Amino acid sequence: MAGAGTLSADAPSQWASHRVWIGMHRFGARRASDGRCRAAIAAGRRPTVRPPPALQASVGESFSSEKRRASEAPAAEEGSGDGEDQGNVRRTSGSMASSSGSEVGLHKSAMALARRGRVGPALRMLYQGIDRYPDNHFFLTSAAVLEGRRGRVARARRLFERAHALKPDSAPTLQAWALLESQNHKVSQAVRLLKMAAAADASHAPVFQLWALLEAQRNNVSGARRLFKKGAEADPKHVPNLHAWASLEMDNGNRQLARKLLERGLKVDPHHAPSCNSLATMEWQAGNYAAARNIFQSGLKSSRRDSDILHCWAMLELRRQNLKVARELFDKTLKLNPKHIHTLVSWGSMEARSGNVERAQELYKKAAQVSPRNTFVQHSLAQFYQQQGDTERAKEIWQRLVELEPGCGVAWHALGMLCVASGDLAEARALYQKGMAVRDPKAALLNCEGLAELELFYGNAGAACRVFRTAAQNYKVSARFLRMWAAAEKRLSNPEEVSRLLEASARRDPQEYRTWLKWALHERGRQNHDIAERCFRRAMEVAPGSPHAYHAYATMKYSLGDTAAAREAFAAGLETAARSGPLITEYALMEWTEGNISKARELFSLGAELRPYLAHPPLLDAWSRLEAQEGNLELSRELEAKYWSILNKGRSEAASTSIVEVVDMGNAGEDNFDGVDSEEGL
C-alpha cells in the first residue's frame, strides 16, 4: 500500500496526500492512538461541490428518506473506492458504555462490510441504525464517511451536521467532516472544523495531523511543523503523526530530523509498515542497500501486515533491476495476502515489460477479480490491453471509468493520449483540461504533462514550458516531471536550463537511474565528459541490472579513444544484462572494428539466440555484413533473410498497434533507451 510520499517507493504521490485514518469507526472512539491512523487527503472521486451549509444548520430531511435512497443504490463491489484504500475502513479502539449490545453489534457489522469494500450494504445497515437509535451519533458519522467516499458530498454533509448537533464535542466527527471538506477543496471550512475539534479534545492527535497536512498543502511549512509538534505532545505514541511529520521534514531536506522521527515511531511500534518502509527507503536512496534490507527484515513479524513491507521492498529491488529478487518478494507478499492489489498489478507490470505476457495477464486478471470496481486496477488493466495492441478494449475501460468516476484523472489522461494517436488534438486538449481539474494532485499533474506534450507536438515549446512552470508552482512535482520539462527546454535550446532541471530531478529522487542516464547523455552531448562520466557511473550504481547506462557509457569511452574502458563497460553490462540486443550489437561492432573477428562472431551468435520478443534485427544485419566482408556469402544471405523476416513481421504488428504509450502511474518504466536516447527527447 501507499506509504508516505517521497519516503515510500511504491507511493510516488506527494507526502501531503498521506492518509489520515479517522478514529471514529468503533463506538466511543476518542483517541486514535493505536498506530492505525493514516493520512487520507488523497484523491478519490470528484463530485459536484456545493457551498457548505452552516455548521449548526438543522436538517429537515427525514432519515427514512436517506435510508430509502441508500437502499436504492447498488452495492459496491469488494475493493471499490479509490485505488489506494481499496474500500478499507479502519477502526480505532474505544467503546461506549451507554450503548446496548445490539447497537454495538449492528455498527460493528456495518463497518466489517465497509472494510471489505461492500459500501452499499454497509450504508443500508447504518441507516437502519440511524432509524433505530436516532440519538447515536456514531451511526451518523460512519454513514457520512461512507457517503463521502461514494462522492455524495451533500448527503454526507447533512449526516455530519446531524451528528455534530447530537454530539458537538466529538473530535472524531469534526475531524472526519474536515477531511470531507478538504477533499472537496473547502480548505478554510476544513480548518474551521479542525479548530473546533482541537478545542473539543486537545488530546486527539489525528486532528493536529490532518490540520498540519492541510497547512503544508498551503505551503505553510512552519505552521505544519508546529501542528505536528502539537500532535506529538498530545499523544507521543501516535506513530502516524510522527510518520507524517517525518515526511514533511524529508521533503524539506531535513533528513536528520526525519530519520529521528521515524526511529522514534518505530520504537513505539517496530512493525509500523509505513514508518518501516520510509526509513528503509531513506537508506536505499542514500545507497545503503544492506541497511535498508535489514530495516525491512526487522519490520516483518510473520503477519498479514508484512505484505505492505514486502511490497515496498520488492518495488525498490525492481528499481535496481533486480528482477529475480523482486519476483521472489512479490511471491512472498501474495502468499501472505493473495488479494494485495498493488502487488498483483506491480508484478503484472514487471512481467509484461519483461515479455512474459501470459503471466502478466494472469496477474492483472486476478487483480480485477479481487477488486472489479477498483479504479487503480481497471486503469492498470486498460494499460495492459493497450500495450498489447487491444486499443478498443482499453478505451472501453477508460470511458467506463470516467463515466463512473469523473475524478479519475488517469483515465482522462489515457483517453487524451488515444485522441493524440488518432489525430484528434482538439479533443485531446479538452480531455487533458478535464484531467487537470481533478482533486488528485498526482493525476492532475499527469494531465499537465499531457497538455505540455501536446504543445510540443504543435511545435509550441515555449507554451509547453509555461505549462510545466505553472504546474511546478502549484504542485510538488516528481523527478519524472522535471525530466519531461528538461526535454521541453532542450527544444528551446536552453542547455543550461536542461542541466539545472536534470540536476533537480536527481536531487528529487537520487535512486532514479533514468535521471542519471539522461543527465549523462545531455552532458555527453555538450562535451562535458567528466560530468557525463559521473552521471553514467551513478546510473550503473543505482540500476546495475539495466543495460542502457553500460551501453551509452561504453560508446562514449570508445569515441574518446579509451578502448579498454569501453570493453570493460560492455563486459560488465553483458554480465548483468545478457538479454540486451542493442548492447550486444554495439559490443560486437566495436570488436569487429578493432579486428577481433572471432570475438565479434561470438557476440553476434549470443545475440541471435535471444528469445523472439527480445530479438534485435540490426544485430543480424551487422552480422550479415561481417560475414559478407569475410567471404562467407551463404551465411551472410541466410542472416540477411532472417533480418528482413523479423523486420517485416515487426512492421506488420506495428501497423495494427496504437502508437501511444500510456504512462503507467507508479509502475511503468521509461525503459525505452534503444539507440541510447529515450522518448523524452534527451
CATH class of the domain at 511-682: Mainly Alpha
Helical content band: 55-70%
Overall body shape: elongated
**From the 3D coordinates, which CATH architecture of the domain at 511-682 would you assign?**
Alpha Horseshoe
Largest sheet: none
β-strand percent reads under 5%
Plain-language structure description:
By secondary structure, the protein is mostly helical. Among the domains are: 1-24 and 171-269, Serine Threonine Protein Phosphatase 5, Tetratricopeptide repeat, CATH 1.25.40.10; 54-169, Serine Threonine Protein Phosphatase 5, Tetratricopeptide repeat (Alpha Horseshoe), CATH 1.25.40; 511-682, Tetratricopeptide repeat domain (Serine Threonine Protein Phosphatase 5, Tetratricopeptide repeat). Helices cover 66% and strands 0% of the residues. It has 33 helices and no strands. Helix 12 packs antiparallel against helix 13, helix 17 (357-370) packs antiparallel against helix 18 and helix 19 (391-404) runs antiparallel to helix 20. It is elongated. The two termini are 33 Å apart. Mean pLDDT is 80; it is low at 1-98 and 654-682.
